[in-house]
Amino acid sequence: MHFTKMQGCGNDYIYLDCITQPPHRDPAKLSQKISDRHFGVGADGLILIGKSEKADARMRMFNADGSEAEMCGNGVRCVAKFLHDHGLVKKPAITLETGHGVLKLELLIKKDKVEQVTVDMGEPILENEKVPTTLAGNPPINVLLPVGDETLSVTCVSMGNPHCVSFVDELTDALVLGIGPKVERHAAFPKRVNAEFVKVNKPDDVAVRVWERGSGETLACGTGACAVCVAGVLTKRTGRKITAHLPGGDLHLHWSETDNHVYMTGPAVEVFSGDWPD
Question: Domains, the chain, ranges and CATH?
Answer without folding.
Answer: 2-117+267-275 (3.10.310.10), 143-260 (3.10.310.10)
